[in-house]
Structure formats: structure tokens, C-alpha cells
Amino acid sequence: MIITKDFVMIHFPKTGTSFARKVIKSIHAQRISNSILSRFLIHTGLQESDIQIVKIKKWNRLTQHGSVRDIPKKHLSKEIVSIARNPFSRLLSNFHYQFWLRNPGKNGLKAQAKFENFPDLNLEEFISYRKLVLQYRFENNPKLRNLIASNNIGPHTVDFLEFYFQKSPQALLQLNDEYITSRSYLNDMTPITFLRQENLTDDLCHFLSAKNYSINELDFIRSHDRVNVSQDDPKKSEPLWTQKAIDEVKQSERYLFEIMEHFGIDHNKYTPSANANKCG
Fold this sequence. Notes:
- This protein is an alpha/beta fold.
- The protein has helices at residues 17-33, 36-43, 87-97, 99-102, 105-112, 123-137, 142-150, 155-164, 168-174, 177-181, 200-209, 215-223, 243-252, 254-262; strands at residues 2-4, 7-9, 51-53, 56-58, 61-63, 79-84, 193-196.
- The strands form 2 sheets. A 5-stranded mixed beta sheet has the order 3-1-2-6-7, with helices on one face. The chain has a two-stranded antiparallel sheet with strand order 4-5.
- The radius of gyration is 20 Å and the shape is globular.
């Protein structure tokens, strides 16, 4: 996560956080570079840097993908911002990025054994693989594991609760139609300002403009290249989406769709067409 004097940015994986992180870090590094006094005070420990990059131990490694529970107490009063990406696009990004193949972890390794053609999975099989990994993830908590399976709760929704709720296990146990439609979840969710991944440059500039970032700094963001964009792959032109895959995402992530509607973000409009290779 990134902490500045004005806000905390939570890096939800595969949503465009690499871009946001890079441009914000670059802007603050340039500010320090432009001020001899600031460089001296920070170097001597007389002044804190106006930006902190916080890493935590997670997934058996150091990562910048901390949740709201990892925010240091003295910064909890600051506005918290994060990036929202529609479940269809994020699923495809995970499918193509193949971190699940390069670094599967113990749960991924267990799940692999259930697929005879692994790693040559189509999108439907990948969805099933991710659900199985989720089951192994909660194998030491049978109550949650069974609830997730019986209610068909998807990985994106589980991760959302994990990142933005102070007590995510308790929220998962309450997750049902009444909890969502009554908006009781808002009592358990940390207030978040969401930027839209599909409109990230403009949303980020609008957010930072309100924090008094300069016109030159905002122009730098607008002109910056995208980050962590995978190279073109002929396989990506293959028809990936089937109606079964689309229906499964909409059903398993249904609560996430409803939560984001409350924040003015309509993920439904990015529903792909069957046998189309991309969303939107």
C-alpha cells in the first residue's frame, strides 16, 4: 500500500495498481529531487518522506497488497482509496497472466492434481480451478469452506471482503441476500473511495487534483504508458467466453456486483458475449 499525508491507497491485485503505484511514487520522488532542503531533512531523519511504501508478509512473501487491517493506526483517519475492476476483466487478466501457474502455492498445487490436462485449461476449467483453490484455502475452517461452497461465493468476492472489511471471516459468515439488500455490510466495511480500472487515468487524476497535485503532475499521469501490460498472444484471440462461464461469474460474484452498484459502479455493463474474446 501507499501512504501519503492525505490518503492511503490499498492495492487490490490485478486492478491496475501497478500503474497507480508507479506514477504516484514517481511524482513524489520528483518532488523530493526538486528540493535540496527536503532531501537533506529526509536523509538526516529530521523529516519523514511524504510518501511511504508499506509491504507486509503475505502469501509467504513480502507484498504491497496489504488490506485495510494492515494500515498503521496513526493513518486510519485518512481517506482510503482503491481501484475496482469488473469481475469479467479481472478473471481474464488472471487467466492470461498465469501467476497461478508460475507460483501456484500449496493450494494451487493440490488443485492442479484434479485437472488431467493442467495447465492447458480453458476458461471454464480455470473458473473451476479457482473455486477449488478457494476450497483448499479454507480447509482449516470447515464452516467457512462449506458456506462458500454451498452459497457459491466466488474468489473475487472473497478477496473483496478480505481486503476491505476489518473482520472478513465474520462478514463471510453473514453473506447472504438479506445482508446485501439491507446494506448491513456497510456497517462492517471500511469506507473506501473507488477508482474505476476501465477509466483509471481520469479517475486517478480527478482524485489527486482534489488533493492539490499540480497540473504538471496530472499531465505526467495522463501521458504515462500503461504498466504490466502483457504482450500479444495468439491464444488471446481464441473465443474464450462461453455462456456457462459468463453465468458462473455472474452467479458466484453476484454480491460483489450489488455492492459495487452502491458505489456507483455498474459491473453488469461489462458482461461479455458468449464466444467473444474480450469484455465490454
